[in-house]
Records
---
Amino acid sequence: MFFDENETLAAITNVTWDSGTTAISSGLSEAGCNGSKFKSAMLIIKKYAAIEVETASGSGEHLAALMDIYGCDIESQKVVLTDTREGFAKLVAAPTYSGSSQFEKAKAYHMMLDENMTRSCAA
């Protein structure tokens, strides 16, 4: 609905909302584009290469921005960062990772991060 001209952005927003099943109804409300899932998905797809590097090193401005999007306090950030680095190491080690498109990598990262954030941060 929002990205008629950009298939990548349209696809990631559909993935953001239950693999597309609620994207249409969520997209109709203003709140649909203001949520943490949408904002984090947009940041990840736009800055994935930098986020890969920052996740591997354990810090960086994009990771900090993601923590802010989800409203993580300092203690929660530590847990999320540890969980995310462990999850990212598993993603990268998977045999299919190197052959995946940037979109597929960003999607997998977003799903993992969102789970970690939802579990550990105030949304």
---
Amino acid sequence: MSASPSGSDPSPTTADIGTLELVEYPHPALFRKAQPLLRIDEGVRDAIEQMFDIMYDAQGVGLAANQVALPYRMFVVNVTGNPNDGEELVFLNPTLSRPRGTAIQEEGCLSLPGLRADVRRPERVVVDAFSLDGQPIRLDLEGFLARVVQHEFDHLEGRLFTDRLPEAAALEVKRDLELLEDMFHGKQARGELPTSDVMQERLDRLEAERCR
């Protein structure tokens, strides 16, 4: 398990993260393994706040840093999907252990609009992480919350729920993924999105600021 990230702002020179947006497949951030945070600064706190807003606007129940083009091991969850209800959970540098049981349930992903499929996952799991205040968290989860946490943790590993599908189901969504690729590359060709190289360079810079 990674060391606890510092709860103080160590350097006023650390660049702001800026305005975040939900990214869609096949943005490079979605395939990149996120790195542990070594410190919590105002940029991280602002990013978490933005992530909740983006998640609610998209009617989601969880959102990982990769989905807003950040290379950090962190995600947010509120299983109600309602900013006025439920509990807002923040997980920094999470690890999962003690998977138990098996459950199959339909999943979707905000970064894969329109795609849904049944996914097999452990029914229960233990998550260890740190809060936004740098305090250790350990939760023994089951049911829907366990599934959401596992889904978001997969993002931090650069893995999508479609990667967990059996062969037949994976073939069914292949065409949908190809359409998303065509749309993404079309936006790049029209200048509506940066090139993949520019996206990678930004991820490298952000990672260097808080993970090294």
